[in-house]
Structures are given as structure tokens and as C-alpha cells.
């Protein structure tokens, strides 16, 4: 029931959704369900809305709040592996906020 985080490059010629193409750029796998558990326990609005059974797509416009909540969570956790997972997710979010045509896909099971 993990939430894998994938940075995706989106290309779309014209305005038709039929031409939309999404290709993976990088990912953080949630094999031990660490990120999913942190989201379920979170009292922060964006992270708490993450569903370990559904996919949520975030754009560059969502990144300031997402990064702030990841940082706040990282400051609260005590386990090193949780901090490392959040740091890796934050790095993907930073890339998403800086790159044109990038999205962050949070993939539940």
C-alpha cells in the first residue's frame, strides 16, 4: 500500500488530450510503505489527502505547498530512513518546480 513518487515529463502537441504523452524521468519507490504511513499520520492538508490506493498528480503550481509539508514532516520524524525518503521525494519536487512540462505523480497501489 505504498505511495511511489514519480517525476514525469509531459509533452502535448496542440490542445487535444489525445496527443498528451507522459514519460518517467525519475522515481522514489515506497517499498516499505514509509511515505504512505507518513501521509496517513500527517495533519498537514496536502499530505493527509494522499491516498495509498489512488493516484494524485501534482504540477509545478502545487510544489511550494508540497515541499513545505515534506520539509515540516522531515523535521518531525526521528528515523533516519524516513528522513532519507522524504529528502529524496523533496529532490523530485524541487526538480518538478523548476522544470517546464514536469509533473509529480504520487501512485498508490
UniProtKB/TrEMBL annotation:
It comes from Streptomyces longisporoflavus. It comes from the Bacteria. This is Uncharacterized protein.
Amino acid at each position: 500500500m505504498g505511495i511511489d513518487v514519480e517525476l514525469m515529463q509531459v509533452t502535448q502537441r496542440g490542445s487535444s488530450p489525445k496527443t498528451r504523452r507522459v514519460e518517467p524521468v525519475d522515481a522514489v519507490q515506497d517499498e516499505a510503505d514509509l511515505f504512505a504511513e507518513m501521509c496517513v499520520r500527517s495533519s498537514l492538508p496536502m499530505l493527509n489527502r494522499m491516498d495509498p490506493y489512488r493516484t494524485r498528480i501534482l504540477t509545478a503550481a502545487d510544489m511550494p505547498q508540497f515541499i513545505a509539508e515534506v520539509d515540516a514532516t522531515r523535521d518531525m520524524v526521528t528515523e533516519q530512513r524516513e528522513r532519507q525518503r522524504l529528502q529524496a521525494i523533496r529532490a523530485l519536487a524541487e526538480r518538478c518546480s523548476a522544470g517546464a512540462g514536469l509533473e509529480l505523480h504520487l501512485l498508490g497501489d
